Amino acid sequence: MEHRDREPLMRKTSSSYHTFPEGTARRLDKEYLRSLHNKRLYLAVFAAVLGNFSFGFALVYPSPVIPALEAHPSPALRLDQHTAPWFGSVFTLGAAAGGLSTMLLNDCLGRKLSIMFSALPSALGYVLLAGAQGLWMLLLGRVLTGYAGGVTSASIPVYISEISHPGVRGMLGACPQIMAVLGSLVLYALGLILDWRWLAVAGEVPVLAMVLLLCFMPNSPRFLLSQGKEEEALSSLCWLRGEDTDYAREYEQIKDSVRKQSRRVSCAELKDPFLYKPILISGVMRFLQQLSGVTCILVYLQPIFKKTSVILKAEYDAALVGLVRLSAVAIAAVSMDKAGRKILLFVSAGVMLVSNLTMGLYIHFEPASHNGTVANTTLVSSANLPAEPTNYITLIPLLATMFFIMGYAMGWGPITWLLMSEILPLKARGVASGLCVLVSWLTAFTLTQFFLPVVNAFGLEVPFLFFALISAGNILFTGCCVPETKGRSLEQIEAFFRTGRRSFLR
User: Fold this and answer.
1) pTM for this one?
2) With b meaning 16 or more CB within 10 Å and e meaning fewer, what string describes 438-476?
3) Angle between the 62-70 and 314-339 helix axes, to the nearest 10 degrees?
């Protein structure tokens, strides 16, 4: 009897997705969204994004630590111009390995357990950093925290997108980036009062809090349905939406979508535009995101400010940039469900283009008159020199960097992660998200590894001019290839790539 009662509902739901909700169906969808209780959903998202907080904290750990280790009295821990680039970049190599392993973890353990698993290498990495007695412990600690970051960066956006509904998915999709930025800002602030060992100890706190909270959170209903666990999926959706809501209707929509997709992706299926188009869009976006230079700038922020003789102390400049970054991501979070994804991507890339171009031209035309002796030093060695401002024109690199970070945080930071989790089809979401993270962090590793040698060989302006060129490419790619997903369910987005009908996304 129950099966017969559900069959008409599933046919009605499936039909509504093939014609895109209009009239009565659209009104019912809006009424359903207004009736939902989001408190538990917000709690589940908060528990997950503590992993992003830890990721942001670990990513910029070298910024205040490299100057301290360059002046360390012990030769076993002292960094030089050869070891400092490895300390900065090896994190991204670990993150690439984390993204690669998540291709398996996401589909075997599930999204929630994959996030919880990341706590193990993260905690161990911080222990190694806090108790380091040699360079190998520093590098291994960075690799492990990077590996954990790769796992969380591939798992958390997918988890959030699968437990969220269209009414708040854009806002919640920005939360991973907000928490990563907040983690970086806390690191910069703590770096003003704590030494590098205690910074690593502080990094353990969000990791432990994440594991404890996630023990009480549900798994993704879509993942549970893909594993044939229908009762658990229904209970999970009930917990997330509220018992007095029409969650059963959403459950049938999700179930209908999952039923249409086989468990595994074959090589022959990769020729289907339904699969390769969203995977290609997501991968190229992650590639361009890193080529814009954000990881290099964040990792070497204090040395860059020392090199350009910014008028304030580099430590305070870094904290100020972190605060600007946090504010910009918060603006993106509240506006992307109203303004849309694409318009924010256009604005973001435009701001990054102007900022990088300004920074490159400033460094090229003002190297000697305002940088003094710093102009003749390497980027790493300049981190230990006292700031010697000579003119208020040295505020230009600080302002250019602030606007770059603001532009990135408004669009190409959070939206790239959000779109990846939105447009990837369920049957390939676990593998494809890991692949995208692998591409992202291999690109980041290459850039951070070669950033310092390029600066020392050709000057600091060269990478910034290159980043400006990439930002121009971001504008073109957004206009030609990126779909608008504002206000659409994951099933509607999949229907768009399956049929190619743009009416699904209007």
Assistant:
1) 0.73
2) bbbbbbbbbbbbebbebbbeebbbebbbbbbebbeebbe
3) 170
CB neighbours of residue 260 within 10 Å: 14
Q: How many CA atoms lie within 13 A of 26 on its CB side?
A: 9
pLDDT in tens, 92-101: 889 888 888 8
Sequence-ordered list of residues with C-beta below 8 angstroms from that of 166, at least 6 positions apart, any chain: 33, 487, 488, 489
Distance CA 123, CA 203 (A): 8
Distance of CA 317 to the CA centre of its chain: 23
DSSP notation for 277-335: HHHHHHHHHHHHHHHTTHHHHHHTHHHHHHHTT-SS-HHHHHHHHHHHHHHHHHHHHHH
* Cα–Cα distance for residue pair 264/260, rounded to 1 Å: 12
Dist CA 250 CA 240 (whole Å): 12
Q: In one letter, which amino acid is 493?
A: I
| Nearest one of 105, 109, 222, 218 to 161, comparing CA atoms | 222
- Two structure tokens written together for 277: 């188009």
The position carrying tokens 């390939």 is 428
| Number of residues written out for the chain | 506
The Cβ of residue 127 has, within 10 Å, a number of other Cβ atoms equal to 17
**Which tens digits make up the pLDDT trace of 405-459?**
888 888 888 888 778 777 877 677 767 777 887 888 888 888 888 888 888 888 8
Phi, psi of 366, deg, nearest 5: -125, 45
